[in-house]
Amino acid sequence: MGSNSFHLVIAREQDGSIQILHKEKQLVQLADGLNDQNQLNDEAIQRGLACLRDFKQRFSDIPLPRVRLVATHTLRVARNREQFIKPAYQILPYPIEVVSGHEEARLIYNGIVHSQVLSAKNLVIDIGGGSTEVVLGNRTQSTQLSSLRCGCVSYNQRFFADGKLTVDAFKQAMSAADKQFASLSKEYFSGDWDLALGASGSVKAICEAMLQFHGDELITLTRLKQLRQQLINWGHVDNIVLDNVEKKRTHLLAAGLAILTSFFRRLPVDSMHFATGALREGVLYELAGIEAYSDIRQRTIDSMAQLYHIDRAHADKVRATAMTLFNAVAESWQLLHWRRTLEYAATLHETGIHINSRAHHKHGAYIIANSDMPGFGEEQQMMLSLLIGNQRKKLDFERLNELEAPLKLAAERLICILRIAVLLNLGRISSRLAIANIRAEENALKLTFSEPRHRVSLFVKDLQREQRQMETLNIALNFSFI
């Protein structure tokens, strides 16, 4: 129950990971009803209660659910919050947990830990409706937690209530935010982090604006200043034209932008990326009792392997063969960056087999492309889907040709390796075919097998078919037998 929106998430624990079954949000704007004396007015209370009545309809029939109701800044500071909490309990008979600012910051970092790969040292900012949380962390553990009294809803009320986007309004908002960030402890000003991330709807909206104007979602101070000038040029929130940003979010964009610009000015931050998880994910994983994983991507792969009943013994054989080939060619084929992707593809290459064994590569590709895969970026997930979809039979040139040249070349070479690894393990028996020698050139791969040719005639035919497929990738596949 945030200061701007209320969110409902229904999920289940599935093989050590969270699987979202349903989620929705309502724009409640609870903070709009908070006056200078921190009294919540009746209109805001009734909006919140009406939202809870709607949400109750979604899960009232779920048997024995584990439920956690979490409230953040507005209910944290509201002096009359019991006027909301008591009737809320009559609607949803579960205790409402009004978390402290530090606890909110901890849950935010925990949600990010479970949702993406972090660096050794990380800086996180989450701009909420009523407060802004700033966290420092070492991989899976937060080390500094701070909660500041600045949020996109409260700042919108103070500085942009009339909808006008002026130089003076931005100046006042950033000056107020400067004072908040100046109160942070000295650790936040050291610059001792490898990765800076922004969470919440405000940062997401700013990233989407960056995508429209710059072609990517990277946030820098220069870009923030340019966006601020664009908003000033528009002059009023009603004139904002941002195709990717929800209309409901545009009226809060200026306030969020002022806070984030102040953050960049006050702290030694060069650039920032959007965080794929936050408070809700932190609450869910804690509710399910799932501990932070040292390798978020491996947890996702292991979870999917269990979910789709992968034959791990066979998958491990394919993976071992693929890595033998990879280790021999990675340097000359410039594939070192893609080691883990190939390992993951080998592990999950039979994901679609329970749907249809004849076309399991296509079904597997679709499943991977459309799954929620914590820890994986869009490019990694796309490459994984592409490899699995092209592990056998005809190659999908339509998808390959959509890639930029360097990525396309890497995909083609990885596909070559995976196809041969799959081929060498056909039949699910321990292969008697040992690779005696592997040699790679720019557009060629030569394999020598320690087995007389006449004893593996069926395999030779398979390799000959594979030769023709590799020719279409401009890779000459040559093989010989001892």
UniProtKB/TrEMBL annotation:
Xref: SUPFAM superfamilies: Actin-like ATPase domain, HD-domain/PDEase-like
Entry keywords, A to Z: Hydrolase
Superkingdom per UniProt: Bacteria
The Ppx/GppA phosphatase N-terminal domain, residue ranges: 9-288
Pfam families referenced in this protein's UniProt entry, alphabetically: Ppx-GppA (PF02541), Ppx-GppA_III (PF21447)
Keyword Hydrolase: yes
Record-linked InterPro entries: ATPase_NBD, GppA/Ppx_hydrolase, Ppx_GppA_C, Ppx_GppA_N, PyroPPase_GppA_Ppx
Residue span(s) of domain Ppx/GppA phosphatase C-terminal: 296-467
Coiled coil: none
Transmembrane segments: none
Cited PANTHER family: EXOPOLYPHOSPHATASE
Protein name listed in UniProt: Exopolyphosphatase
Species whose genome carries this gene: Shewanella avicenniae
